[in-house]
Amino acid sequence: MSPFKMNHINPQTGLALFLRFFFYRPSWSRRSCFVMSMFRQTWFGHGMQKALVSIIIGDRYLSFWRDHCEKSWRLYARRHGYDIVIIDRPIRELNDGRSLHWQKLLILEPSILKNYDRIVWIDSDILINAASAPSIVEHVPEHKVGVVLYADLFPDALIRNVQERWIQRYLHGGGSMEAARSFWPNYYKKVGLDAKADLRFNTGILVLNYEAHRRLLRRIVESYDRNAFDYEQTYLNFELVQNNLYHVIDHRFNTDVMTEILKYYPFLFFTDDEFEMVKGNDCYIDIAKLCLLTLYDNSHFLHFAGTRWPAKLLTEVLPKFANRDFLVESLRIFRDRVRNPT
């Protein structure tokens, strides 16, 4: 029996054999990291081997993933035949002040992933709409990195409104108007790079190929030695653009929750600290739940980047939304509120 945690689906019969889960430390763990868990769906050698891979370091982040995201990953993996590989410590120490975000560029170093044809990096704060999301690796050429283009998140008709709302929030946080206006146009220039500022990607989702991209990621780690404002993301963006190695995938595979809220529900655009001031308003919370259900229903992968309160509300209401009937769910929420006023 394989030493990994696994759930094996027989490729001949499709019969799921649910096996016991336990921890495993591969031989290279003493030098770098270890795989905390590996959720197996297929035996190696049967069709395309695919894996969802993430690094989750620290109890806080692991608890968030388990409470809000893990179940959806497992359902998605089972539906599309992916394994899930979670790494819970740095793969290699970078002793130059760079943040842990850079560790995602090291995920192709451990030999544990060399048996996979496609590797999908996925940030641990992403909830998957497992019932409707298609397989993310489809239609991504093997030599390209599958990414979501930031510009695709902003419909032309709304871009000006979104920019003005973002600037208002930037000023509210103490920034200057000059800095706000130049922030995104100078995305690459701020770290001394020259590329079109509108060619940017959120690297919370990356569709990779082990052989095609291992050297690329290693070169980025070796070529840049300081954090950008978004850590490693600016440099990875730059290399993908300069070498024409990106392949744009459906923006629904990396739906940023706060960007969507800024577009369609700006009255919900709160930080976690600000949300503490309004969470006692039950009617407001009910409306927020319905808005978040809408975002979830319209998305494949929902990314809670930088903000946690939407995940908590959505996780609370999702189990009651099994039939995806907004009218029924709306009536239930407000009926319960009338019956149980607080």
The sequence of SSEs as H and E is EEEEHHEEEEHHEHHEEHHHEHH
Overall 3D form: globular
User: What's the β-strand tally?
Assistant: 12
How large is the count of helical segments? 11
Largest sheet: 7 strands, mixed
Structural class: alpha/beta
Termini separation: 55 Å
- Write down the overall mean pLDDT: 85
* Gyration radius over CA: 21 Å
* Helical amount: 25-40%
Strand content: 15-25%
Spans of at least 5 consecutive residues with low confidence: 1-34
Largest sheet, order of strands side by side? Answer: 3-5-4-6-9-8-10
Describe the structure.
The chain is α/β, with parallel strands linked by helices and 342 residues long. Among the domains are: 154-187; 252-342, no CATH class. It is 34% helix and 15% strand. The chain is built from 11 helices and 12 strands. The chain has helices at 59-68, 70-80, 159-172, 177-182, 210-223, 233-242, 257-264, 272-275, 282-297, 309-317, 326-339; strands spanning 7-9, 16-18, 35-39, 50-55, 82-87, 118-122, 126-128, 145-149, 201-208, 246-248, 255-256, 301-303. The strands form 3 sheets. It has a 7-stranded mixed β-sheet with strand order 3-5-4-6-9-8-10, with helices on both faces. Strand 1 and strand 2 form a beta hairpin. The longest helix has 16 residues, at 282-297. The chain is globular, with a radius of gyration of 21 Å. The model is unreliable at 1-34 (pLDDT under 50).
